[in-house]
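Here is one chain, start to finish.
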Amino acid sequence: MTRLTRRIGTLVAAITLTGAALLATTGAAAVAHPTTDFDLNGTYADAGNNLATIRNTGTVVIVDLAAPGRPDGHGVVVDHATIFVDFPDDRSYTGVLVAPGTIRWSNSTEWTKAKAVPDVSGLTVNGATQALAAAGFTPNWGGTVVNCDYAPGQVADQSPRAGTLVRPGSAVRFRTATRPTPPRVCE
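Its structure:
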């Protein structure tokens, strides 16, 4: 039996189990689409901030792993708190949905819906710290950097950059502007 045949058999079994479970719980011949505990659609980050985008329509789940350079995973919604996905370059995994946006996979990894890093440029250390913490990130002041575009004490750069999608709770490092040491001057 080829690996592809085994994977197709596994997916068919999962789809069959999903249909049987729905029939058993609804008692109806018509199969309704299960509603998940949260909207699965979106971009997720693992502990290393590798990104995956999930598209969910009805019971179909597609996991786009193009960011880490892997082929798409395909699967199904089993019930309101469970998905089943086959990753062709690896194996099949069950994901348990934990609101408000986390998937705990059967291989003990965890994906969380990614958030965009806010722009804190031009803010003070206190302002940037408060803005990042309020957005769910861990602020990390990294000292000063010579920069003539911002007043001394204002945030002049940050990493990751504003708009970058990362896992909530990730550290965002920022540095504040300082002026060059004479004889260098800002023009």
